[in-house]
Amino acid sequence: MNQVYESKHPLVRHKLTFLRQTDTGVRRFQELVWELSALLAYEALADLDLNETAVTTPLDEAAGHVLAERVALVPILRAGLGMVDPIWNLIPDAQVGHIGLYRDEETLQPVEYYCKLPQASQVDVCLLLDPMLATGGSTTAACNILKGHGIERIKFVGLIAAPEGIAQVHSAHPDIDIHVAVVDCCLNDRGYIVPGLGDAGDRLFGTKVDEAARIPDIAE
Ligand code: PRP
Ligand code: URA
Hints:
Layout: E1 4-6, H1 10-20, H2 26-44, E2 50-56, E3 61-67, E4 71-77, H3 84-90, E5 95-96, E6 98-103, E7 110-116, E8 125-129, E9 132-133, H4 137-148, E10 154-157, E11 160-161, H5 163-172, E12 177-180, E13 182-183, E14 186-187, E15 193-194, H6 200-205, H7 216-219
Parallel strand pairs: 1-12, 4-5, 4-6, 4-8, 8-10, 9-11, 10-12, 11-13
Antiparallel strand pairs: 2-3, 6-7, 14-15
């Protein structure tokens, strides 16, 4: 059964507040996504296995450890791209795959347009990256793609999730843990997370601001 890990870290809560803020500009939004992604990946990877080794310091021999598991990072394009570099900086040996999905605005169903993944035989654990888990359609589709490719051990790392999306992933993929900064209230009638942060891809890449993604009742 999957677990949902909502970060309790004070830095995560602090940074999330500014991430949500309507007037946070593109550059600061990107920086906050980078900072939050590193913090959340740090928490999500706390159970990685280690091999023991020895290391020679200038003074003596010391016991040491190296990662025993090979990590893959797989962003869901496009907003997941914003989460890759800060985690890759922590694990430079990670392989990076890409899954291109967009949500059809009418049906809210994910549409696949790109897929390039590492070989399953070279991956022990995969971090599936997307800032937003809304209806759960994109995450579920990405997990289907990963498993179809032979990548079975998957942890989803995101910034904001809706209960509806967690339930959807839970029912389709009960083996996948979900690590997020926060679980929000619900979805609006356009499938946006409330209170959320609006459209993550648009805010990351500076493309159009969708008025439907704003939450005037709460923000004003
Ligand atoms: C957003 C987000 C997720 C998806 C979440 O991407 O980054 O991938 O929506 O919604 P869901 O849980 O209801 O599937 P979007 O489809 O807007 O594409 P983009 O990243 O290219 O903007
Ligand atoms: N995608 C986003 O970028 N934001 C939401 O609130 C829902 C889906």
